[in-house]
Specification:
- With 720 residues, the chain is of the alpha+beta class.
- It folds into 4 domains: 18-235, Hypothetical protein af1432, CATH 1.10.3210.10; 251-381, Beta Polymerase, domain 2; 411-533, Ubiquitin-like (UB roll) (Roll); 555-720, Alpha-Beta Plaits (2-Layer Sandwich), CATH 3.30.70.
- Helices cover 41% and strands 15% of the residues.
- Strands 1, 2, 3, 4, 5 and 6 form a 6-stranded mixed beta sheet that branches.
- The longest helix has 21 residues, at 197-217.
- The protein starts with 29 loop residues before the first helix and ends in a 9-residue tail after the last strand.
- InterPro entries: ACT-like_dom_sf (IPR045865), ACT_dom (IPR002912), Beta-grasp_dom_sf (IPR012675), HD/PDEase_dom (IPR003607), HD_domain (IPR006674), NT_sf (IPR043519), RelA_SpoT (IPR007685), TGS (IPR004095).
- Pfam families: ACT_4 (PF13291), HD_4 (PF13328), RelA_SpoT (PF04607), TGS (PF02824).
Length: 720
């Protein structure tokens, strides 16, 4: 699990100036840890010197914690790693000690710290998972197993991606697995300086693409921000150096406008009788770099933000009211993440106030508990297996202060676990994981039954369908968004209500076009997997005509081809002399009785059936394709495509859909072309329980106000 120890002369990310260093986040002194580790384990009755600093940090968050498991875990880890050294020359045990201290400072509970001390033993020593279970219990064994790498000898080049897949699955059951991995990566990034530059760059890129987004999603901002700075130093050393120089120059200034505004805020709150702590919170390197690129010349207040900490939720709004009353607020900067928390547990009020000289200070207002969660994220939730607190609010787990605690398996993680099972190989999993994690904002949409769906920003109705129904979403035929009919390509907004309209045909197929509108991995993988396992279906629509001429060159496709009707109509047509042939009805003309029909063989031995007047028939006959005699069988259910031409008016789509439904006909798919000269073209593919209903259906559609024609599609033959 480890990168090797740092060489101070080549360390990629030197510590920031003392004035800019975050309180409570000291750098680990590896030499001190090394000296303490060399002393060996202590007696049974005394805590080893090497973990005294861990115990101190742990007791600061958990005063009554039992330290005996930590003592035993250190003894086992130290003895099993004894003789192993890092490239810096420090004993290897300094790495698990440093990782455990990081977690202890964040407030992790004892089980997490115990597993952290042992997290490399199974991977790098003779200790087995069975031994860990026997000595420390099943929870510790699970956490250690979750962060243990898969062997390259077994997985080859896929070892890294499959290790992450294994780790994410384990995280789905216990988020403490990822907490340990993030702390492990942070210490490795801190000590990456002795690695070859190309290895530093490779590790930094994986950290940027995977670990930092995971830290953001789990709300562990304290780890995320330092990881960002370390990656920034490796991948963009010149910009890092310039940003570091800006910070140093600002620290050397005689006056600090941010400190002056902080004192003014303290005075306002004192006069209002509000008990609050006001701190200056310096921006980390990456944050300041982003601000400098956005604003150009930086002013004193750009180098940090004010943090106001209070006791209760109501106090947050009281502080906000006083600041907006007594100072000059920048209203456009106000955001309420208390009423509407971010998907990663974050809660806070954001605002900004301006001075007379035009300098603007950003202000964060939150309770002490909110601040703990903002810094430590899921680490602050403690043990997910622990029994709920006695003080319940609406059936939800609460902490000791009565504040709500979010579940330890957030919605984005559930979605990730769902699609990763469908990823067929390591390469697709790895590339899709990076793409999924790059979508860093989430929206919530509501279902008519009162449930919700969490989706990434930019998601469409296609994504909502697969999020709600999994692969059953193949049968989705449309959607209503906020009560109005909408296409499946409609992009959803936060707070939308989405009703997905599902067809009744179990053999329904997704459209290849859905891939263009699928934003989530779950939707894309499900559609791609279906298309890959149904090559004959994919060939029947446009590909049915993508056959070879006699000279071996591919024939062009006719304009406006549509996918063929699905194979649930296999018994609708009988092929002369081949009663067992696989038959499909062509989507370009969707024949139904009593249409005169003919057939053509396509790839996979499938016979596609067309109406004899279909333009595709003329074209294929012109190419020398042999016709196959077919006739209608006994099946009465059919699909047919109808085109409605109408004048543009409000609610026309809803009225047409209602007219179709009143005839007892199911809509399989529907498209509406953009209006042209106040005229609109609607194309419906419908499932008829009986072909004899077609004339009545077309008549009902023509009776809808504004509709002036309903007909079967007649595509023009492509020019040859």
């Amino acid at each position: 699990m480890s990168a090797e120890a740092t060489n101070p002369a080549v360390s990629p990310a030197p510590a920031p100036p003392a004035a800019h260093r975050r309180k409570g986040r000291p750098r680990i002194d590896l030499r001190r840890l090394g000296r303490a580790a060399l002393l060996g384990p202590a007696t049974r009755d005394r805590l080893p010197d090497a973990i005294s600093h861990v115990a101190e940090a742990h007791r600061a968050h958990h005063p009554d914690a039992d330290l005996e498991p930590l003592r035993r875990a250190y003894v086992l880890a130290e003895s099993s790693h004894r003789g192993q050294m890092r490239k810096s020359g420090e004993p290897y045990i300094t790495h698990p000690l440093a990782v455990t201290l990081i977690l202890a400072e964040l407030g992790a509970e004892t089980t997490t710290l115990t597993a952290s001390l042992l997290h490399d033993t199974v991977e790098d020593t003779d200790v087995t998972l069975d031994q860990v279970r026997e000595q420390f219990g099943e929870e510790v064994r699970y956490l250690v197993d979750g962060v243990t790498k898969l062997e390259k000898v077994d997985y080859g080049a896929a070892a890294e991606s499959e290790t992450f897949r294994k780790m994410l699955v384990a995280t789905g059951n216990d988020v403490r697995v990822m907490s340990i991995k993030l702390a492990d990566r942070l210490h490795n990034m801190r000590t990456l300086g002795v690695m070859r530059p190309e290895k530093q760059e490779r590790i930094a890129k994986v950290t940027r693409d995977v670990l930092i987004p995971l830290a953001e999603r789990l709300g562990v901002q304290a780890l995320k921000t330092e990881l960002e700075d370390l990656v920034f130093a490796i991948l963009h050393p010149e910009e890092y150096a310039r940003t570091r120089e800006l910070i140093a120059d600002n620290a050397a200034r005689e006056s600090d406008p941010l400190a002056e505004i902080a004192e003014e805020v303290r005075g306002v709150l004192r006069e209002a009788g509000i008990q609050a702590e006001v701190h200056i919170r310096p921006r980390h390197f990456v944050s300041l770099h982003r601000v400098s690129r956005k604003r150009g010349q930086l002013r004193g207040t750009d180098f940090g933000r004010l943090l106001v900490l209070v006791g209760e939720d109501a106090d947050c709004y009281a502080v906000l009211g006083e600041l907006h009353t007594c100072l000059t607020p920048v209203v456009s900067e106000f955001k309420d993440f208390i009423a509407v928390p971010k998907f990663n547990l974050y809660q806070s009020l954001h605002t900004a106030v301006a001075r007379g000289d035009g300098q603007v200070a950003e202000v964060l207002i939150r309770t002490h508990q909110m601040h703990k969660v903002a810094e430590a994220g899921v680490v602050a939730l403690g043990n997910p297996y622990a029994a709920p607190a006695e003080d319940q609010t609406d059936g939800e787990r609460t902490d000791g202060d009565g504040e709500r605690v979010d579940p330890t398996r957030p919605g984005w993680l559930s979605r990730l676990l769902d699609w990763q099972q469908a990823a067929p190989d390591a390469d697709m999993f790895w590339s899709t994981l990076r793409e999924d994690l790059a979508q860093d904002r989430e929206i919530t949409v509501f279902r008519p039954d009162g449930g919700t769906l969490g989706l990434p920003e930019g998601a469409t109705c296609v994504d909502a369908a697969y999020a709600q129904y999994g692969e059953d979403a193949h049968a989705c035929i449309g959607a209503r968004v906020n009560g109005r009919l909408a296409t499946l390509s409609t992009v959803l907004k936060d707070g939308d209500t989405v009703q997905l309209l599902m067809g009744q045909d179990p053999a329904s197929e997704p459209s290849r076009e859905w891939l263009e509108h699928a934003h989530t991995p779950a939707a894309r993988i499900a559609i791609q997997r279906w298309l890959a396992t149904h090559p004959s279906s994919a060939a029947d629509g446009p590909d049915a005509l993508d056959t070879e001429r006699k000279d071996g060159t591919p024939a062009p496709r006719p304009a406006h081809d549509e996918p063929a009707a699905p194979s649930d109509t296999a018994n609708a047509v009988v092929v002369a002399g081949r009663p067992e042939a696989n038959v499909r009805l062509a989507g370009c003309c969707t024949p139904v009785p009593p249409d005169e029909v003919t057939g053509f063989a396509v790839r996979g031995g499938v016979v596609t059936v067309h109406r004899v007047e279909c333009a595709a028939v003329t074209r294929m006959k012109g190419l020398g394709r042999g016709e196959i005699a077919v006739h209608w069988g006994d099946t009465t259910e059919f699909r047919v495509t109808l085109v409605a031409e109408s004048f543009q008016r409000p609610h026309l789509l809803a009225d047409l859909t209602e007219a179709i439904a009143l005839e007892g006909v199911a809509i399989v798919s529907a498209t509406v072309e953009p209006p042209t000269q106040q005229r609109v073209r609607h194309t419906y593919t419908v499932q008829l329980p009986d072909a004899a209903l077609l004339p009545d259906l077309m008549r009902a559609m023509r009776n809808v106000a504004g509709v002036y024609d309903v007909a079967r599609p007649q595509h023009q033959a492509a020019a040859r």
